[in-house]
Amino acid sequence: MKQDQNRPLRAFALVGTIGVEMATSVIFGFWAGSAIDRWLKTEPWFMLIGLLFGLALGVYGLYLLVKQFFGE
């Protein structure tokens, strides 16, 4: 398994996964926060909270992914 870590396709897959994971978590946080703002008429507070929560979740997911990739 350690020999496979240096293959270029595996590195491209990791970079692609990082991008998709960060984008989806931030977009979902933004979308959920905006929906709550529209429902409660509290713009832009829940959108900002959702955006920050999505960013934090994306960074945490990135940490787990990189940790799994490097085998620690």
Question: What's the structural blueprint in terms of helices and strands?
Answer:
Blueprint: H1 8-40, H2 45-69
Characterization of the model:
This protein has one domain (6-70). It is 81% helix and 0% strand. It has helices spanning 8-40, 45-69. With 72 residues, the chain is mainly alpha-helical. Helix 1 runs antiparallel to helix 2 (45-69). It is elongated. It is built from 2 helices and no strands.
Task: Provide tags for this entry.
single chain, 72 residues, mainly alpha, 2 helices, 81% helix, 0% strand, elongated
What low-confidence regions span 5 or more consecutive residues with pLDDT below 50?
A: none
Q: How would you describe the shape?
A: elongated
SSE succession: HH
Overall structural class, as computed from helix and strand content, comes to mainly alpha
What is the strand tally? 0
**Main beta sheet:** none
Report the C-alpha radius of gyration, rounded. 16 Å
Mean pLDDT: 90
**Distance N terminus to C terminus?**
13 Å
Count of folded domains: 1
Percent strand: under 5%
Number of helices: 2
The share of residues in helices is over 70%
Compact description:
By secondary structure, this protein is mainly α.
